[in-house]
Amino acid sequence: IRNINGIWEYQYEGQWEPVIEDSYDLSVLNSETMEIHSYKTRNGYILSFNNDNTKAISFRYSATEEFNTGFNVIRQMIDSKNSDQMENNMNGWVDPCNNFIFADTNGDYGYINRGKVPVRNLLNAWVPVPGWDKKYDWNGYVPFNELPRIKNPKNGFIVTANNKIPDEDYPFYLSLDSAPEYRAKRITQRIKSHLEKGKFDSKSMLAIHSEIISIPAQILTKEIKKINFENLSYSELQKYLIGWDGSMDRNFVAPTIYSEFRYRLNKEIISGLLDSDKADKMLNAGGRGAPGHLRTLSARFISYIDRNNTEYLPNGYENWTSLFEQIFIESCDYLINKYGNDIDLWKWENVHKTYPVHILSNLFPELSDQLNPPKFSISGDGDTPHNAGYSNVSRFDVVATSVARYMFDIADWNNSRWIVPLGSSGHPGSKNYADQGYLWKDDKVIKMQYSWDVITKNYQLQIIKKK
After folding, report:
1. Which run of H or of E encompasses 65?
2. Per residue, what are the HEC states of 333-363?
3. Nearest to 439 by CA among 392, 463, 404
4. Do residues 181 and 163 lie in contact, with contact meaning Cβ atoms separated by under 8 Å?
5. Which residues contact 336 (CB under 8 A, 6 or more apart)?
6. Fewer beta carbons below 10 Å: N end or C end of the chain?
7. Cis amide bond preceding 396, omega within 30
8. Are 438 and 420 in contact (CB under 8 A)?
9. Selection from 323, 89, 105, 299 nearest residue 183 by Cα
10. E strand or H helix at 8, and its extent?
11. Are strands 109-114 and 44-49 parallel, antiparallel or unpaired?
12. What is the mean pLDDT of each run of 10 residues along the chain (467 residues)?
């Protein structure tokens, strides 16, 4: 990139092209108006320049690339009469590109990975690529009729939990950022169990939202149980896992021991692949990049351990059991040092909590108690349907959870239920700002109101007069 007489240009295929520059006035409360500049190239808007302004990083995004018809689609969705119409109406959906499921009262139901997904080089998935080389260009979008979809499958149900849906034969690159199979697999197991018993109703579906058994925990503790400790204190701590089924229950000690063990297991394996410094950086990074790669790697480690494949076993260990013994000892020593010898203090509820922070609380610390929603101890982790992913930066604080939990009863819409982690109002002064959180943490739900007669009986009228 270069600036010639105040005009920005960027290089593409050996030629210099003009940058589209715009400026905007941004009014700031109790401060001076700021002038904001934007710079757009054929590869999207520039996010940052290097120190001498000779290179820049741009970000191309389908939602801002051209006119976004998403809001028109929402109106069409509301007017859809059946599943076929709903699916076809997704043709204009732009962003977010996500898993979308739907059903109708005729008994038809389906899934589509909706959105405008650009066709691009697979290397674009991993690192920033040279914007001046056309081989990394977008080549249109994945055709709508070739987006992944499912309709009325023979097994009688569809499961999606942010996991990868298309198989390896799917011709287009969609994303690398998929959740491991564990949540979807556990949901599938629960659904099949209900179907085998011949009973599946709204309560059954709601119960699946509360599912807190971790498949990785079951795999790792199966190996931990094989260890014969000479030290009695470690044998006593091992007992918390021997009779444990992998339930990430907030009232249990086992989830804390397992989570610390898994953190150290990841660190040891990655240190063997790279080095301890890089492993520390990867395990303690924030944001979405390194944690996303760590999640993928960690799932791979679990699958190898489950098959007793020692390809990732670090040097110096004879087998997984010898490694597990060392890591279990280190994990317990750490927990004793941090929480003490009172094992009740190790319960998952004491270390696995939400810490929601309002975006303005740092600017107005004197109001943080009113701005920040309440904290809760919750069950589950990032591998359970009851999603409560935690951070390694300040382990094991909850940093990711379900945006909402829904249960739609198509046969009786008024029997539908929902809940959100905080409340239905974004105003910190509202009584509905965080009132649902007290129900949400205990896996409770509230009724949806569909029928007009139900709405008119329960509504509250609020009139806000303009001053």
Report:
1. helix 62-65
2. HHHHHHHCCCHHHHCHHHHCEECCCCCCCCC
3. 404
4. yes
5. none
6. C
7. yes
8. no
9. 299
10. strand 7-12
11. unpaired
12. 92 94 91 92 93 93 86 91 94 90 94 93 86 93 95 94 91 89 95 87 90 96 93 95 95 97 95 89 82 88 96 93 96 96 95 93 92 94 94 88 90 92 90 92 91 86 73
The CATH number of domain 66-178 is 3.90.226.10: no
How many angstroms separate the Cα of 313 from the Cα of each of 180, 218, 277, 308, 316? 21, 19, 18, 10, 9
DSSP state of 92: G
Give the residues across from 417 on adjacent strands.
407, 447
Q: What gap in Å lies between CA 33 and CA 37, rounded to an integer?
A: 13
Residue labelled with tokens 């389906």: 110
Q: Which two tokens stand for residue 215?
A: 């498949």
Start-to-end CA distance of the chain, whole Å, equals 50
Q: Give the DSSP letter string of 93-162.
A: --SS-EEEEEE-TTS-EEEEEES-PBP--GGGGTS---TT-GGGS---B--GGGS-EEES-TTS----SS
If you count them, how many residues does the chain have?
467
Q: Which residue in 293, 294, 239 sits closest to 262, CA to CA?
A: 294
CATH architecture for residues 2-59: Roll (2.30)
Reading the block at residue 116, the tokens are 């405008």
**Could you give the CA distance from residue 104 to residue 88 in angstroms, rounded to a whole number?**
14
User: Position 278: which residue type?
Assistant: K
CA angle in degrees (0–180, nearest 5) for 108-110-111: 170
Query: Do the Cβ atoms of 156 and 380 come closer than 8 Å?
Result: no
> Which CATH code of 1.10.1400.10, 3.40.1490.10, 1.20.1250.20, 3.20.20.100 fits the domain covering 182-402?
1.10.1400.10
